[in-house]
Amino acid sequence: MFEEENENMDFKSFEKSRIYKKAMLIWDLAYHIAELASKTNNNSNSEFEKDLLKEYAGYIVEDASKIAPKIAGAWGSQLYDLKMENAAIIRKAARELSVHMTALKMHGFKEIDYCDLLRNEIEEFRILFAEWVKTFDPWDYLIDRWGLFNPPGVNYDDHDPDDDIPFDASDFFRDFDEFGDLTDEEDDNPED
After folding, report:
1. Does some domain include residue 167?
2. Is the per-residue pLDDT at 1 higher than 60?
3. What is the CATH number of the domain that holds 81?
4. CB count, 10 Å around CB of 77?
5. Fewer beta carbons within 10 Å, N or C terminal of the chain?
6. Tens-digit pLDDT profile for residues 95-136
7. What is the residue-wise DSSP string for the chain?
8. For the residues 69-81, what does the mean pLDDT come to?
9. pLDDT digits (tens, 9 = 90+) for 151-179
10. Parent domain of 123
11. Position 4 pLDDT exceeds 50
């Protein structure tokens, strides 16, 4: 049943998008900066600063590693609230990366040209990101009962019209019994 549909769907189409490619570039650059920061062994740095650089290297890798997977997650969902949740995480991670670049400079990281390069890539990403978010359909949603990611005019405590649709799970599954009766009743003729 689903095999035909799956053959026609490109589950990895997000990998061809400009925003995903930019996120992977940011990941690669951030990883190399983190590697440099964690290996900094400049005599002018105190032990405390060296430890801080190593700690920030971990933060950089952590934040950079969130962006591309969250793009994939948002890409794979049609629901506005899930897309916006992923977008908020992406935005926070990208902004944190910029903050980490400032922290590296403050604590004696000498390869500041790389920090500026990453900041420039994040700025280019920000524009792609803002354009991408504009493509989210705000009317394809489930009510976010936490109230954060509802479309304009929809509140967390609004009545969901889907709640008015009568649904009986036993009736639903009765029509889809491929392997025989799903009930506990015994089959009268096991030979059939």
Report:
1. yes
2. no
3. 1.20.1440.60
4. 15
5. N
6. 999 999 999 988 888 899 999 999 999 999 999 999 999 999
7. --HHHHHH--TTGGGGSHHHHHHHHHHHHHHHHHHHHHT---TTS-HHHHHHHHHHHHHHHHHHHHHHHHHHHHHT---HHHHHHHHHHHHHHHHHHHHHHHHHHHTT-S-HHHHHHHHHHHHHHHHHHHHHHTTS-TTS----TTSSSPPTT--TTS--GGGGS---HHHHHHTT-SSS--SSPPPS-TT-
8. 93
9. 999 999 998 887 777 777 676 666 665 55
10. 9-182
11. no
User: Which residues does 115 contact at the CB level (< 8 Å), separation at least 6?
Assistant: 33, 101, 104, 105, 109
What's the structural domain count of the chain?
1
Amino acid occupying residue 30: A
Amino acid letter, residue 40: T
